Amino acid sequence: MYEVQKYITLTGHIIDYTFFVVNDKWFESLPDDYKNYIIRAGMLAERAAGIASRLMDATGLEKLREEGMNIYMPSADEKDMFKQATQKHMLDWLKTKYGAEKVEQFLNAVKAAEKELTIY
């Protein structure tokens, strides 16, 4: 990245997820104890991936600084301004693609999750 650009702004608007996917027919054919092992392994892998991602973020940013990039972290107010300027347009597009009802269900699920989770 540092070879092709000089500036980076850490908006936090993209979260990279790691997915654990298996064939449903295969999974359902397993004994319950095997299913539980696989589910537990997936949960541990998710936790490890999150820790690795945060570590890479921390060390990666230092590397970018060392290479001369200017890194800017917007304030909460600046992030809110970005959200206000862009969210309506994205929601309008999503509604045309997936329908207003599904978008509302998704937004309600996000609100419910935000009450239960701490997002870093």
General shape: flat
User: How far is the N terminus from the C terminus?
Assistant: 23 Å
Helix count, DSSP H or I runs of 4 or more residues? 4
The Rg value, from CA coordinates, equals 19 Å
Residue fraction in strands = 5-15%
Q: Average pLDDT value?
A: 89
The overall number of domains is 2
**Helical proportion, percent range:** 55-70%
Helix/strand class: mainly alpha
Q: Stretches where pLDDT falls below 50 for ≥5 residues?
A: none
Order of helices and strands: EHHEHH
Strand line-up across the major sheet: 1-2
Can I get a quick summary?
By secondary structure, the protein is mostly helical. Helices cover 67% and strands 5% of the residues.
Protein described:
This protein is mainly alpha-helical and 120 residues long. It folds into 2 domains: 1-73; 75-120, no CATH class. It contains 4 helices and 2 strands. It has helices spanning 24-28, 32-66, 76-98, 100-116; strands at 7-9, 70-72. Strands 1-2 form a two-stranded parallel ribbon. It is flat. The two termini are 23 Å apart.
